[in-house]
Design brief:
alpha/beta; eight-stranded parallel beta barrel; 14 helices; about 35% helix; diaminopimelate biosynthesis
Length: about 375
């Protein structure tokens, strides 16, 4: 027969099941329950007005690490990637995922030479997803494309608890690496940043993402250097600029440029490994050339108007508009995102003509969509 043992140490109450024969005298309860009454664990009274709570100490907590994940995933497999696409998430008219369009877009990335995809990142609108949607999309991507492209799941959060839980789930469904932002809005101290990343790094290969324009807080080099000893640190997606990139590459830390308009120089002049790109959703082949074919000022200048256009409003507004104009995704937006104004839609068609339609994803001609062509979804 099994029974519930309550131990109280320093005010914390621990619950554990023990074999009744080994218990000896009955445990001392402030208000013993009658022997015939089955006591639900959450309702056990320790003292007046107090309920027993299961105390989870560091010794008790065991992350859901998997030997299979360790054997399958190598940090070196991530650090060698030069073109990682922060992939767009397409929607059906009711706001649910359009997996058919998503699969097509992933195949276009693979065909264009992208070696990795960020699933549910800023560009993929992970912040507009429930965690169920988020993990489902990571698992779907791994299941369908994991043998052809590295899947990096955005499982970051401003809550360390949520980041841990989502990362455990992401690796359990097969992602190759995690992307982790620093806690945003409810910002923390330098020591808090270090502790946050130390909590998630043991689970598997990890890319830390520094974009202070969105989080409101820079991740300074002292934080990255403090966690650089973790073998699971694959590198940093850095959006601050070339000097910060060089600061890390001089120390042997892998860096991906998070800015399309800076990635060429970051790669060839400052030592970045590659780029985590928005533009590669549209022109994966040209972004591959930009990262692999050596310094190419001419190509970089040719692509600059597109890169500038993509960030004329906060990402992913322009990208969503562009993919809809190319007929690659339905013109459906989850609010609060809305399409670019008409003059910017006209400008995109001209940019496509300048770079060459053959360099863009999809098969349809770029066209200017009317306002009435777009669907805005507030509930999904």
């Amino acid at each position: 027969m099994a029974s519930l043992l309550i131990a109280s140490t320093g005010g914390a109450h621990r619950l554990a099941w023990k074999d009744a024969a080994a218990l000896g005298p009955a445990p001392r309860l402030a208000r013993p329950w009658p022997a015939a009454v089955a006591v639900p664990a959450p309702l056990l009274r320790i003292s007046r007005g107090k309920f027993a709570l299961q105390a989870i100490t560091l010794d008790d907590y065991l992350p859901m690490r998997s030997t299979e994940v360790k054997n399958r995933t190598s940090t070196a497999d991530i650090t060698s990637l030069r073109v990682i696409t922060a992939v767009k998430t397409p929607y059906l008219p009711d706001g649910r995922f359009d997996l058919e369009a998503y699969d097509s877009l992933i195949n276009m990335q693979i065909d264009g030479g992208a070696e990795g995809v960020i699933v549910g990142g800023t560009t993929g609108e992970g912040h507009l997803m429930s965690w169920d949607e988020h993990i489902m999309l990571i698992g779907h991507t791994v299941n369908c494309f994991g043998a052809k492209v590295k899947v990096v799941g955005n499982t970051g959060s401003n809550s360390t608890r949520e980041a841990i839980h989502a990362t455990e789930q992401g690796f359990a469904v097969g992602m190759h690496a995690a992307l982790h932002i620093n806690p945003y809005y409810g910002k923390t101290s330098i020591e808090g940043l270090i502790s946050h990343f130390e909590a998630v790094l043991p689970m598997g290969p990890t890319i830390i993402y520094n974009v202070p324009s969105r989080t409101g807080q820079d991740i300074p080099p002292a934080v990255i250097e403090a966690v650089a000893s973790f073998t699971n640190l694959a590198g940093v997606k850095e959006c601050v600029g070339h000097e910060r990139v060089k600061c890390y590459t001089d120390k042997g830390i892998t860096i991906w440029s998070g800015n399309d308009d800076e990635c060429h120089d970051s790669r060839w002049k400052y030592g970045a490994t590659g780029v985590i790109s928005v533009a590669s959703n549209l022109i994966p082949g040209l972004m591959h050339d930009l990262m692999y074919e050596g310094e190419n000022k001419t190509l970089n200048e040719k692509l600059f108007p597109l890169m500038k256009w993509l960030f004329c409003q906060p990402n992913p507004i322009a990208l969503n508009t562009a993919l809809a104009q190319l007929g690659v995704v339905r013109p459906v937006f989850r609010l609060p995102y809305v399409p670019l104004p008409l003059e910017k839609r006209v400008e995109f068609v001209r940019i496509v003509e300048s770079i060459g339609r053959e360099n863009f994803v999809g098969e349809n001609e770029a066209r200017v969509l009317d306002d009435d062509d777009f669907v805005l979804v507030s509930r999904y």
